[in-house]
């Protein structure tokens, strides 16, 4: 064990994953980052340098996938016992935020920069349980429970 606190970083593919890895690149010196992502994102480069778990991706079109996704995330949380969870979305991140909040784990949600006009659907779910909720658009902040601290991209 390296003595650094563990951070679970979890997201869906695409822009969510790009934003998450950019955030984590600055955190890896301070935290032992454990990643969870859809298996489709696994490559030899990501596997060789990072501790990774595969989770089932979920969308509004296939809500039945919430069951395996939830069980996989619960397994990761119980096995790794992270101090905090960081997610940029979407559904797997919202599931992790909810589960983590019930397990006493600090939770941080960073809503995707793609959500210009309003908070994302997954973000609205995560907001109910996240300890820290950040938007990347200043006009979406209410300076109380939706905070703006800048953009990742």
UniProtKB/TrEMBL annotation:
Q: Which biological process, per GO, is one annotated for this protein?
A: dolichol-linked oligosaccharide biosynthetic process
Question: Pfam families in the record, alphabetically?
Answer: Alg14 (PF08660)
Task: Quote the protein name from its UniProt record.
Answer: Oligosaccharide biosynthesis protein Alg14 like
What organism is recorded for this protein?
Thiothrix caldifontis
Taxonomy of the source species: Bacteria, Pseudomonadati, Pseudomonadota, Gammaproteobacteria, Thiotrichales
């Amino acid at each position: 064990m390296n003595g650094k606190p563990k951070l679970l970083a979890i997201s869906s593919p695409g822009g969510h994953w790009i934003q998450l890895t950019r955030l984590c690149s600055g955190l890896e010196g301070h935290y032992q980052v454990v990643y969870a992502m859809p298996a489709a994102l696994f490559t030899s480069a990501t596997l060789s340098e990072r501790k990774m778990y595969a989770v089932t991706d979920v969308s509004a079109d296939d809500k039945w996938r919430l069951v395996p996704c939830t069980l996989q995330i619960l397994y990761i949380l119980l096995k790794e016992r992270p101090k905090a969870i960081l997610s940029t979305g979407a559904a797997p991140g919202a599931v992790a935020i909810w589960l983590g909040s019930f397990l006493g784990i600090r939770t941080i949600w960073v809503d995707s920069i793609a959500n210009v006009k309003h908070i994302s659907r997954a973000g609205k779910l995560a907001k109910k349980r996240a300890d820290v909720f950040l938007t990347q658009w200043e006009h979406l902040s209410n300076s109380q429970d939706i905070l703006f601290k800048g953009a990742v991209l």
